[in-house]
Amino acid sequence: MSNLKLCQGTDCHTYTTKDRLKGSKDNKTYQTRRRSSFYYGNGNFCSLNCQNDWFNDFGTRAINHFGRLTEPKHLTEDNAWSKRYDWRGGSDDRTHLYYFINQITDERRTITEEQYDDRNYTLNTSGQ
Ligand SMILES: [Zn+2]
Question: Ligand 1 centroid to 81 CA: how many Å?
């Protein structure tokens, strides 16, 4: 029971679906959903609805807290690298080809699967 996560949606308990109705026979209430995993909002919400409810209540404060964008970002050669993969579907060689592609210059650089999976691995030298 303690391994279950609660949906972080601020109004989750107000959606009167059968699966939210919990409790003993004469004392049932609609409750926040509890599951081992959720699909929305990095695993924090049971539905897009609940994710939107949370954002409507807290989104502006969250953006202000973590840093509101005050200038437009610019895509340049220095930050235009993004990870991609191609399915190499040969009959005996069924692996992916992983690479970086620069969206400005179209240059491609092959990388390993480990580099592809490493979220911190980048060729970008600036965040702008
Ligand atoms: Zn929910």
Answer: 36
pTM of the full predicted structure? 0.70
Cα(91) to ligand 1 centroid in Å equals 45
Query: How many Å lie between the centroid of ligand 1 and the Cα of residue 29?
Result: 15
Other CB atoms within 10 Å distance of the CB of residue 46: 25
Secondary structure class of 44 (helix, strand, coil): coil
Query: Where is 21: in which H helix or E strand?
Result: strand 21-22
Give helix then strand counts, H and E, for the chain: 2, 7
Residue 45's beta-bridge partner residues?
A: 40
Q: What is the DSSP letter of 24?
A: S
- 45-74: per-residue pLDDT in tens? 999 999 999 999 999 999 999 999 999 999
CA distances (Å), origin 30, targets 17, 88, 107: 8, 50, 55
Residue with structure tokens 């109004």?
A: 11
Strand pairing of 34-35 and 29-30? Answer: unpaired
